[in-house]
Amino acid sequence: MTAAPDGTVREVNRAAAAVFPGAAPGVRIDEVTPGWFTAAHRRLRGPRPEPSPDGPDAAAAHGPVGERSFAAHPVIRGDGAVAWWFVDETAHRLADAQLRTERQRTAFLVEASTRLLSSLNLSRVMDVTARLAAEHLADAALVVAPAAGRRHPVTYCVRGGTPVRAGSAGTPADVPGLEEALQGFPPVPSRWIDPAASPGWVVPPGFGEVGSMVVTPLPGHGVPAGALILLRRSGQASFDESEELFARLLAARAGAALFGRPDVRRTGVHHRDADARTPAAAAAAGRGHRVRGGLPPVRGQRADRRGLLRRAPRVRYSAGLLVTAASRQLADHPGTTELRLDCADITSCDAMGLSALLMVRRLAGEAGARIRLEGGSVCLDRLLEVTGTREHLVAAPAPVPGAPGRGGPARPG
Q1: 182, 227 Cβ separation under 8 angstroms
Q2: Hey, which of 38, 91, 266, 372 has its CA 20 to 30 A from 286?
Q3: What's the chain's average pLDDT?
């Protein structure tokens, strides 16, 4: 399209007429084109350089035309008229926007994983999950934990607020898709959920009318670790497929963190003899709490600085408390050179279990001890082989400067 210095259209070809249906010779461009293009043409009315026959004389202008995006490249003619060449860059801009979104989401998931895995406390993990979801995914978020008796603990957070522990949820069957999510079934698409059918306990106080809702499971290691409910106010855009997928990615990380908490059986490493009850419940039932009731007997041997053999800590523990147990053993037995981990009863191990083992390796290394895995476990052996972490786990600790007998020089005096 060619426009005169006074802003009237001189020429328009068929392609430009398809983009600007009202454009025709003699019509003013501000009547048939968007404001960003009119402003770009007006800026060219000032002093102009000599016209170039084979290239643009000024920077291109960019802007939307309807649902599409265009770049307008000007070529100034000798009589002052400007020939504008329009290039459709919709696909390029969409790709750029998607790339920025994916980078932001990747950075968020890294931050979420770090914050979620920084604690094995149930309430803390629920608080972090609700806050992250409310800040990045929805106007409000609810985290529903697995049933404690007949009730489900709930934590909710409104965007800009702080997490609130609401005690217990009502009946999950009253919320569309929640009962299935708590059983680990795939999430129901948000377009199938009628927010008006949800009970009052799902909506935080003062939230207002709910416009759209997502219910997605928090997957643990083969069993559900709870459910995540996302709410958006009426008038906001509904959740699209990419947002629902992103919510499931966050839910997977939150589920792994909840699955690894030490106060329920669902920990990163399962033992066959682990009791799913709390210590109080087990005692009330007349049974000893096998895993969490106290530390097991210490067996094995180790050599102290003088070469004498002493008893060495031997850990046989559910991984939810593995880090705590190992830390306590190392503190109770100063000078330990080897920490022996009994793996014979491990029946499954996921990323949380491996994370706990690596943390024990770091604690032992700081204490100048190495760890030894005893009693082979097929699943653990396979995980260590796939991740390539076996050699790191069982490697000798690095010398500690100033520690006698540990490879460093003795301190003077």
Answers
A1: yes
A2: 266
A3: 75
Crossing angle of the two packed helices 90-116 and 241-259, in degrees rounded to 10 = 10
* DSSP-assigned beta bridge partners for residue 314: 340
CA distances to 193, 284, 295, 364 from 292, rounded to whole Å, are 41, 15, 8, 21
Query: Rounded to an integer, what distance in angstroms lies between the CA atom of residue 233 and that of residue 195?
Result: 10
Q: Which CATH superfamily is domain 118-259 in?
A: GAF domain (3.30.450.40)
Element (H, E) at 396: none
Beta-ladder partners of 247: none
Structure tokens at 300: 């094995």
CA dist 206 and 354 (Å) reads 42
**Architecture (CATH level 2) of domain 279-394:** 2-Layer Sandwich (3.30)
Q: How many CB atoms lie within 10 A of CB 222?
A: 11
Is 335 strand, coil or helix? coil
Structure tokens at 114: 């770090």
Q: Which of 27-41, 75-89, 248-262 has the lowest mean pLDDT?
A: 248-262
The three-state secondary structure class of 45 is coil
For the chain, helix (H) and strand (E) counts, in that order, are 12, 17
Residues of the chain with CATH 3.30.450.40: 118-259
374 CB burial (10 A radius; 0-12, 13-18, 19+): middle
Start and end residues for every CATH 3.30.750.24 domain found in the chain: 279-394
pLDDT tens by residue, 237-294: 888 888 888 888 888 888 887 765 544 433 333 333 333 322 233 223 332 222 232 3
